[in-house]
Amino acid sequence: MADHAPVEARADDIDVIRRSLTLPNGVTIKNRLVKAAMAEGIGLGGGPPREGHLKLYEEWAQGGWGMIISGNAQIDPKQLASPHDLTLPDHPSTLKRYTKLASSVHRTPDSPLLLMQISHPGLQSSSTINLSRWPWESAIAPCSDRPTVSDGPIGWLWSRAVWPVQSRQITPVDEWLGIVKKFVDGAVLAEKAGWDGVQIHSAHGYLLAEYLSPLANPNPRPLPGVPDHLSVRLHLLYLILEGVRENTSKGFIKAVKINCSDFVQGGIDEKQATEIVKTLVSWSMLDIIEISGGTYSSPAFASPESLKSPSARQSLFAHFTSSLLPSIPSPPNGPAILLTGGLHDRRLIASSLRERACDLVGIGRPACLHPDLPNKTILDEGTPDEQATLGGYPIPGSGLMRVLLGGGGNSPTRGIKLVGAGISTMWHEWQLCRIGRGVEPDPDMHWLRGLIIEEIWYEVIIGLWISMWRFWTRQVFE
Ligand SMILES: Cc1cc2nc3c(=O)[nH]c(=O)nc-3n(C[C@H](O)[C@H](O)[C@H](O)COP(=O)(O)O)c2cc1C
């Protein structure tokens, strides 16, 4: 994780961020601020968007973002990353609900672009947390394994509780091609539903990232229909992107989210990631490449430390993009590079754009507390630079929960990193649930209150009734 030193405040910072950008497919983004993909945590049991999603996306749509990327929509309802994930077609009514969500964003000519993040969590899908399959049913992956969350006995217990059985290794080529088809079908549905594009999730140790990784895919099998010269680990991503390109229009935005490093021994490192990104650029199929990093074993992308101190301004992965970008053509001649992680300060955002550490800036966690962050703060000329700092907030009760759950208290170097990341992620999802219910986010919400009120009461107990009602009405009326 490298420091990215802030530069002096400059009067044109807001102008730099406000400047529009034209992508290789000719579509223009009105400014450089992207609401990063965040699982919304709304409802239980997967399925298409609910009323809460519509309300939440309406709020983001009015907030001044140039682009909004949805939370991960999973291609397989049994293989979820969280029990609340959106899922893609298993029923004709799915299209209707995704169309409604797109309409709730595209209300005015000035509305942001909307991308659907399409995903498969691979071996990181937990049967005991997500309850979308029996505990003894496996996740699927290029290898048979389970994530290692730490070396000690507590880590051993955690990983057995979350992943009671190892993943099933996918070997038949037909099964891989079936996965390709589901990603492509998801993109086709997104376009039919009026979305502006898709982002293929190939980061954070999910299935497509596993296929790229020497650690998770030690003996990759070639897939048919791919140019001979292409490295075998790129075959799956190539077939998906090629399928999306062939089956959607040119104006439909194609994006990918990729790791600059897995931050685990034997996984993708920065040198390999640089080669992967350069190859992706050479295919000329992509409009946006988002750079992130980490897996559940080492969740750099969700590092709670990057939220803490407004004085320690950091962009998590800028050192990678800064050295990569000079070798990539700028948009519209090449894909826009979207950098996400720790970019929580107006001056840092402006300097990252000005020095071309990126073309677009993704913001995640602060957008859960302030859906109107661009209009209210970053692009607001009345807000001085010193106040245009978006991180720097504590999560009440998170230190105690980290101690109790094995996350090592407030020390970033001790305990299970996934616990700290999970505590922070859940708290932010609960803020999204509040917005979806039509109430203000609550920065003072104690973690335990969030667990009881937002998670157990609203999302599990009430969410379960709504899921059952939806299932029943679907069977009877649709
Ligand atoms: C509540 C929450 C849910 C997230 N869900 C996703 C997701 O569905 N897909 C994804 O690629 N990243 C997801 N992320 C990671 C964010 O996209 C982003 O990479 C991360 O929060 C770092 O950006 P930030 O420092 O601005 O928060 C999630 C993060 C949070 C806080």
From TrEMBL:
Q: Which SUPFAM superfamilies match?
A: FMN-linked oxidoreductases (SSF51395)
Q: Which Pfam families match?
A: Oxidored_FMN
Where in the numbering of this chain does the NADH:flavin oxidoreductase/NADH oxidase N-terminal domain appear?
Answer: 25-376
Q: Does the keyword Transport apply?
A: no
Please provide, alphabetically and separated by semicolons, the GO molecular function terms listed in this UniProt record: FMN binding; oxidoreductase activity
List, alphabetically, the InterPro entries matched.
Aldolase_TIM, NADH_flavin_oxidoreductase, OxRdtase_FMN_N
| Organism domain of life | Eukaryota
UniProtKB keywords: Flavoprotein, FMN, Oxidoreductase
Q: Which family does it belong to?
A: Belongs to the NADH:flavin oxidoreductase/NADH oxidase family.
What is the name of this protein? NADH:flavin oxidoreductase/NADH oxidase
